[in-house]
Amino acid sequence: MKQSNIFWGGLLVSLGALFILKNIGLVYFNWLSIFSLWPMLLVLIGLTMLPIKNGIKTLLTIVLLVVTVTLIFTKTNHWNRSYSFQFDKWDRWEDELFEDDRTEDSEHYFYEPYDSDIKEATITIDAVAGDFLVREQSKHLMEFFQDGNIGPYIFSTNKNGDHQTLILDIKHRHFKRRGLNNDVEIQLNETPLWNFNINAGAASVDLDLSNFKTRFIDIDGGASSVDIRLGDKFNKSEINIDSGVSSIKIYIPEDSGCEIDTDTFLASKRFSGFDKLKRGLYQTPNFEVSENRIYINIDAAITSLEVVRY
Length: 310
Prior knowledge:
- The protein is an alpha/beta fold.
- It contains five helices and 16 strands.
- The chain has helices spanning about 5-25, 30-35, 40-50, 55-75, 90-95; strands spanning about 105-110, 120-125, 130-135, 140-150, 155-160, 165-170, 180-190, 195-210, 215-220, 225-230, 235-240, 245-250, 255-270, 275-280, 280-285, 295-310.
- It has a six-stranded parallel β-barrel with strand order 8-9-11-16-12-10.
- A hairpin with a 2-residue loop joins strand 14 and strand 15.
- Helix 3 packs antiparallel against helix 4 (about 55-75).
- The longest helix has 24 residues, at about 55-75.
- The radius of gyration is 22 Å and the shape is flat.
- The termini are far apart.
């Protein structure tokens, strides 16, 4: 029997048992505790490559499985302990998840008026957790709608010539570990050229920018879900995603040339209509001749990654 089969089979049985115990209320856990054990995958891969007898590999695999299961149960029941395995994309925000007693949902709305002198705008969003949607167009420069128990959000802005910066930050970055609710919708004016800086954390981010001129998108996430749809309103767009455990789906116009540069650990990649130039680098056949070009750079760990031409 393959050592990897023993490890994965035992791990799946343990995870299934955890879900059952959670559903009947005997155990509470979050995914961050489990995902932070991802270095065990490196140990397993290294184990299978060692020039030792299969019997010894099987024994070591069983020991590795026992250690992993023990850590899972330990980490899901003791939230304040120091973790031996930490994923740096989560460390920046997981330690801030929260201590206060805010449980009631509340609604927030604010906007920034549109100034026709503004040619370019940059929006910085502290997403952290919840569902974030950018889809609709606005007569204002930006409109913000939030319904949830995270926050409140603080809005600040400054202008530098024809460039305006919009910052959406959370006032209190201490959140409950369960019962989180944060639904955010952002509407933007389609006239300026837009740049996006998003700290995704464990958020679900849905950016439909097909009607907007988009120069730059930067997303820094931990365990996040990202959907991006770009249009053909600008001749050079760049997407940078730096994440941990993520599901990433990007839609690009078929007439636009696109280059994908990836550096991933364990990833499922689907790049239909792309040519592979070398390891981690892909291009559409029309890249060199297209008037509009899109550059996608992805640095991720365990990821489902798909780029679709439409």
